[in-house]
Amino acid sequence: MKKVHLLVAAMLVAGVANAQSGTRQAFRSVNDCIGCGTVDISPRSATQSNPNPNYTPPTSTQIDNCSEVVQGGAGVIAGDNNVAVVDQTGTKNIAKLTQVEGNRNYGLQVQAGTDNRAQANIYGSNNTTLQLQRGTGNRAGINVDQVNGAAIPGGSQNGNNNWAQQRQQGAGTSDGNNNIANINQYGNTNLASQDQIGNTNSGNIFQHTNFSTAVQQQTGNGNTAATYQGRDNVGAGNIPALASESYQRSSILQGGNNNSALVTQDH
Length: 267
Fold this sequence. Notes:
Elements: H1 2-21, E1 66-70, E2 83-91, E3 94-100, E4 106-114, E5 117-123, E6 128-136, E7 139-145, E8 163-169, E9 176-177, E10 180-186, E11 191-199, E12 202-207, E13 209-210, E14 213-221, E15 224-229, E16 245-246, E17 249-257, E18 260-265
Parallel strand pairs: 1-3, 2-4, 3-5, 4-6, 5-7, 6-8, 6-9, 7-10, 8-11, 10-12, 11-14, 12-15, 13-16, 14-17, 15-18
């Protein structure tokens, strides 16, 4: 946030200087980090190259975070009154937030640490997505839709009124490392929550339902949780068809280390 404030201040100073001099500056395109690409939520080996296109071997003070926010644009139908907030503190973090084909969506991504990855793809209206990462090597992915890329803003083919949230961190003020969280919601008015406190935890939620809730809370290390709600109906092109199941509830609470839990409801 400090960088944003400094940037705004610099722009204001430049604007005053130009006005006083009577010169008119043309808008200039600048290089950004569009092209962060798809965020890989799988663990990355330390021997693999950094996927950040702006990456160069760091010094002790270098910051090379990359974020990409897409709300409408070429080839997609834009919506109205969407809000996207990305806050990155640390190094080598990548965040990508896409909100298209809908209205009044709210997306928040907060990364504090090193080498974290977060991606959210939202098709529909009135959806809320929260991704909070603190530590190193965490991976978080959210997809909200009915039929992927249906190009019907706010229509029956998109996912509407869903809430998806992910938090990856350590206990207390410590960092959490190498956690993986993934949420796929196909339907309307679903709630999914993943809270990972510790290291090397893995969680997956798949909701092909309406009016359903799935909760995963993992406190410890090396825990695995998987929740599948609704029937995995497959339409053309291996894209889930409209959700048919409704009103399902699931909660997984794991405290300790190396636990595994699997919940399947009408799948």
